[in-house]
Amino acid sequence: MKPKSKALFLDRDGVINIDNGYTYKIEEFKFCDGIFELLRYAQKLGYKLFVVTNQSGIARGYYSEDDFQRLTSWMLKEFEKNSIRIEKVYYCPHLPEDNCECRKPNPKMIKDAIDQFGIDPKSSWMIGDKLSDIEAAKNAGVENTILISVQNQKNTLTKYIVQSLYDIMDIIKA
After folding, report:
1. Which one of 13, 115, 129, 133 is the catalytic residue?
2. Which of 112, 118, 154, 169 is the residue whose CA sits 20 to 30 A from 8?
3. Tell me, what CATH number does 119's domain have?
4. pLDDT tens string 31-50
């Protein structure tokens, strides 16, 4: 039997890009400082990379699914230019009140990646900027969690709290 892979699950807004609220235009998308370095580092350590993102702006009518796909395609090309391979982008287009299975803190997006790509949740990590990201990871069996927070929110859910993507490279090891 083939050994399972390890993964790095990333929220998009607030982790990959600066969260300006319902980002869907390429010209408004700004990568967070350190994201390219962090993802190249994680790849070198053998992690598969996945994006898991709530995108309720679609259901709210702020932008269309086509707008989201256009931005996602551009983002993936930017990662490729920087020698970074994102295995898949999972997204939830629903409103919080829709009570769907995919919206974080529900674990469906992460569980789907675990099942579809043969991921070992115990050797994987979730990086998010909201407690719902951390809850989704825990609900999917991913115990290694990192919350990016400038307020230094104290909580018992997440394993680590950092203020910068650069801090993560000192935490994640092979």
Report:
1. 13
2. 154
3. 3.40.50.1000
4. 999 999 999 999 999 999 99
In a domain, 174, yes or no: no
| Whole-prediction pTM | 0.95
Instruction: Domain count for the chain, please give it.
Output: 1
Per-residue exposure over 114-136, b if at least 16 CB sit within 10 Å of its own CB, e if not: beeeebebebbbbbbbbbbbbbb
Would residue 173 count as lying in a domain? no
**Whether residue 92 has pLDDT greater than 80:** yes
Residue 19 is among the residues annotated as catalytic for this protein: no
Catalytic residue among 11, 67, 133, 167: 11
Task: Decide if 120 is catalytic.
Answer: no
Backbone angles phi, psi at 111, to 5 degrees: -60, -40
- Domain membership flag for residue 129: yes
pLDDT tens per residue across span 67-83: 999 999 999 999 999 99
How far is C-alpha 135 from the chain's CA centre? 13
Q: What's the token pair of residue 147?
A: 């919350």
- Whether 1 is covered by a domain: the verdict is no
